[in-house]
Amino acid sequence: MYAHDSNVSCLLTLEGGLEVSYLGTWTGGWDELDFAWRTDCERGVIVQRQLFEDLAVARVGDPALTPVELPACEPFYDDSAALLGAFVAHVRGGAPLECDGRDHLRTLALCFAAIESNESRAVVDVAEFHRRHGLG
Fold first, then answer.
1. The predicted structure's pLDDT at residue 1
2. Is the dihedral of CA 114, 21, 102, 53 positive or negative?
3. Per-residue pLDDT tens for 23-43?
4. In a domain, 29, yes or no
């Protein structure tokens, strides 16, 4: 499905010492795209098994996941309309954006820092990476 790697594993140490282990795969050993998102927290887990639906939570010690009710939505339409509406409100009246271009550039820089770490087989300090590449 992909010409190059479609999987990632990254250990991030955030400011304040919080460690995040990120594992992502688009296709791993099988060319069938499948959605699953799991966030493990100190006292439980959040699991989403279908894009736009099937969200559930469990606390440590719970015997099973508890479904979370989500509002009805038309996938890929409602979320795009909301993003466009927020952008228009920003352009017309200066309403703040939840995520602006700077956020996306920081995410892209993190991806390139991870690639550098993989290629150099060394830890990359993201603040230093930003300085080195003039990303203020």
1. 65
2. positive
3. 888 776 777 767 788 999 989
4. no
User: Taking 80 as the threshold, does the pLDDT of residue 5 lie above it?
Assistant: no
pLDDT of res. 35 = 77
Per the CB < 8 A criterion, the answer to whether 109 and 129 are in contact is yes
Which pLDDT score, from 0 to 100, does residue 136 have?
72
Q: What is the DSSP string of 75-131?
A: TTTHHHHHHHHHHHHHHHH-PPPSS-HHHHHHHHHHHHHHHHHHHHTS---HHHHHH
Task: Report the predicted TM-score, pTM, of the whole model to 2 decimal places.
Answer: 0.71
Question: Taking the alpha carbons of 116, 28, 104, 20 in that order, is the dihedral positive or negative?
Answer: negative
Q: Is residue 25 part of a domain?
A: no
Residue 1's H or E segment, with its range, is: none
Structure tokens at 134: 């003039």
In a domain, 42, yes or no: no
DSSP string computed for 32-72: -----EEEEETTEEEEEEETTEEEEEEETT-SS-EEE----
Residue 15 within a domain: no
The answer to whether residues 71 and 78 touch, using CB atoms and an 8 Å cutoff, is no
